[in-house]
Amino acid sequence: MPRTPSNNTLIPLLNKLSQKLGEQQAKNELRWMVDHVHAAMDEGRQQQIAQSERAAHRAARLWRNQPARSATEIERESIRFSSVQWAWLRQAVFDRTESHKPLQYILGNQPFGQANISLRPPVLIPRWETEEWMLRLAAMLNIHTEASSAKEVGQRPLNILDACTGSGCIALGLACGLAPGLAAITGVDISNEAIALAEENLALNSMLIKNKVGFCNLDLQAPGAAPRLRDIASSWDIIVSNPPYVTPSEYSELDPDVKEWEDIRALVPLPADADPCKVQLRELDPSGVSFIVQLAKLAQELGVVDSQNTSLAGTALPRLVVEIGGEKQVEPVCQAMHDHGFNSTEVWKDMAGIDRVVLGYVKV
Q1: Residue pLDDT, tens place only, 3-37
Q2: Which CATH architecture group holds 115-361?
């Protein structure tokens, strides 16, 4: 049996990752890279490994201090690798450490609820905070539906607009997690790249989807946004969004893993028609909530706040659900909702205890 070349070992790769990420995170990320290689090695095990990747990702997101594999355990994974697979691993580690490429772009996917989301730059990478509130909202809608009569929830599916859909993760997560036929979900985004990827993810998850989903390229800050949305659905019930809310000062301090790879338009609220390549941070809204204010106004224009105009009339369900960047944005976002017809608001914290979502209600 030929001897394994001395440079075909995972330990140097682990050491390189550890210098950038710290030992525990390096072990986790190298493990996911190794799992990715194993999936290519044995197509018969691909589904099983995809499930283990989901479990590993969730464990890393939910349990920050989980025990990582020992160096010896990681090294055992490399016994059967071919030269091509070693080349992929070395390139992946180089991209992660030298080019600051996010792991999700390297692996090409990210689990999100029941969906598996394909990813590529510059489309925003789904975060665990977004997945958390999406699952909570889905459970809220499902519980209400189970406890209500058909008359109370309306005869047609809920029309849900996913504003700034990106990869389509929220729309597809809801489509997979909501009761069959409960909703018709439309995801819109200003980015052509995002809509193309969202449509790919729709096809990828077609066997898991229980509700109607569609995607549309649309600039929500353009004057004709509301009429175009009315062409899609005559009445909208709920708007959900992970909008751009990062402040200019926060953006300037972000790691290269984010700034050099993800679309600034998905992170920082830019003025309408702004060229993202020429934007000056000092000229932007320092609060980071300007887009959310416009979204609240759009909700009012679409009749989302009309207490008698949606399938949610008489219910205690939210009409507008937006992700935010912490306590500093709670007051201005709640005020924007009140200014545009929402008479009650609620704040959800994420698992880290940070104010993460503001919900707008129309209570009679």
Answers
A1: 444 467 899 999 999 999 999 999 999 999 998 88
A2: 3-Layer(aba) Sandwich (3.40)
For 74-110, letters b (16+ CB in 10 Å) and e give beebbeebeeebbebbeebbeebbeeebbbbbbbebb
Question: Exposure pattern of 141-152 as b/e (b: 16+ CB <10 Å)?
Answer: beebbeeeeeee
Tell me how far apart the alpha carbons of residues 91 and 93 are, in angstroms, rounded to a whole number: 5
Specify whether the CB–CB gap between 348 and 171 falls below 8 A. no
Domain with CATH 3.40.50.150 in the chain: 115-361
Q: What are the beta bridge partners of residue 111?
A: 116
Sign of CA dihedral 290, 236, 131, 36: negative
Which tens digits make up the pLDDT trace of 158-206? 999 999 999 999 999 999 999 999 999 999 999 999 999 999 999 999 9
Q: Which two tokens stand for residue 185?
A: 């979900």
Q: What count of residues does the chain have? A: 364
